[in-house]
Amino acid sequence: MTKQQKHRVLASAVLILTLGVAQNVNAMHIMEGYLPGGFCIAWGVICLPFLWMGFRSIRKSLNENRRVLPLLAMAGAFIFVISSLKIPSVTGSCSHMTGTGLGALLFGPGAVSILGLIVLLFQAILLAHGGLTTLGANVFSMAVAGPFVSYGIYRLCQKGGVNKRLAVFLAAAFGDLFTYCVTAFQLAIAHHSDVSVGGAFAKFLAVFAPTQIPLAVIEGILTVLIIAALETYARPELRAAGFLKEER
To answer: Are 40 and 137 in contact (CB under 8 A)?
Structure first.
């Protein structure tokens, strides 16, 4: 990027962060106190190996080429802003996009676990969005499960010769949807006293589906547009991150 382009990216990031923080956010990360203590601990422990893998992945990327740092920061800012914007769903709940597909495609799913952890901490502390006791569950659904699905779908599409834009769209959209499937499962196993786990899972999915499906489509389109813009204005950075390996 040229210095002028970097200044424009920084100014845009400040603007969208300001707009994101200014909202009264109550979107659907699992809120504080909604999971029993044992579940909170268990999900946190499950996340630990993924976070260690993510830390090593980011350290390796930065050691190999510091040029990827602006892209890494942009991916984290994108997750923060897009997951802070919510749309009311049925029964008083809310849905939101995740933004993790972009980071998973650029840096792999491991790195996104760290980005997601940072984002979820800030949102829990500054925006009352999610919670500290439920941090492990929210990290697993949004920053582990979703990114791995996005990365896997993109790689499968590449091997299958799928158009690149379509592959990016499918990866981001299905990663978003899978995040909410995992969240619904987490809620179902913790709150199913009057029905089976399967019945509770279906009910939670029904709550999110009316808004989450169109949001997943929107996230897929946004991710395609961002990748296209980066390929126009930040090709050296994309090559440094390994996203454009075929052009080395």
So the answer is: yes
